[in-house]
Amino acid sequence: MAICELKHCSKTYGSGVSLVHALDDVSLSFEPGEFTVISGPSGSGKTTLLNLIGCLDVPNTGSVLIEGQDVSRLNDRELARLRSWRVGFIFQSFNLVPVLTATENVETALHLARAPGDRRKLAEAMLAEVGLGELLRRRPSQLSGGQQQRVAVARALVKRPAIVIADEPTANLDSHAGTQILDIMRKMNEESGVTFLFSTHDRMVMERARRVVRLHDGRIAGDEVLEPPVPAGKPA
How many angstroms separate the most distant Cα atoms in the chain? Predict the structure, then answer.
């Protein structure tokens, strides 16, 4: 079963002469274990597509299914639970809480999801997994850009989601830090089978992709599979 499926999705913003067709009759299916780049010029619909997959927005027409569930049929509580448990988000601006430590920032995701167990221990273990085991008590202002993005990756992955959505995750990083972040995410994809969906036109990201979907003016302009997804059965 596809982990995510979009069926004839269209999305517009504005009205009249200001009407913008962000997506125009897009149908796509993503399998578990993909490491997929959504590519295209500015305004092509990349972020809109990821927002639909992440249940942050809804299409004007068409449907979005996450693990077989039509999200349009979920109530607000069910949608919130889906976002909390099954989807992780990584943003180019990191979106860390400046007054919280690295550990506390990662813990926040577990608190919002009302995760059981020792949340502090889970957060610290995840930070160690991304190479920040010695920087648990530092606040964002005490971390480099690459280290802040590692905290954001840890926060997205600590819930062990089915899908991680990464919107331009390397845009604010130098090439060295960007390479390290991508290597961490690719390793986690290979070891845990987490599905990663990227919005980017960064060549470094595209070189590591298993699949590249190209958008232009809100439509699919290309869909190339470079490697098969991580085999089913990997631990989530």
Answer: 55
From the list 136, 130, 165, the residue with the least C-alpha distance to 150 is: 130
Q: Which residue has the higher pLDDT, 172 or 220?
A: 220
Measured CA to CA, the distance from residue 214 to residue 179 in angstroms comes to 22
pTM of structure:
0.89
- What is the rounded CA–CA span in Å between residue 123 and residue 126? 5
Rounded to whole angstroms, how far apart are CA atoms 105 and 150? 11
How many helices (H) and strands (E) the chain has is answered by: 7, 10
Rounded CA gap, 74 and 36, in Å? 26
* 127-185 confidence digits (pLDDT tens): 999 999 999 999 999 999 999 999 999 999 998 899 999 988 888 888 888 898 899 99
DSSP per-residue letters across 29-65: EE-TT-EEEEE-STTSSHHHHHHHHTTSS--SEEEEE
pLDDT of residue 233: 53
Q: Contact 202/214 with Cβ under 8 angstroms? A: no
For residue 236, pLDDT over 50 is answered with: no
DSSP string, 150-212: HHHHHHHHTT--SEEEEESTTTTS-HHHHHHHHHHHHHHHHHH--EEEEE---HHHHHH-SEE
Alpha carbon of 48 to those of 74, 106, 141, 209: distances in Å?
Answer: 20, 26, 30, 20
Q: Residue 83: enclosing H or E segment and its boundaries?
A: helix 76-86
What residues contact 129, with CB distance under 8 A and at least 6 apart? 154, 157, 188
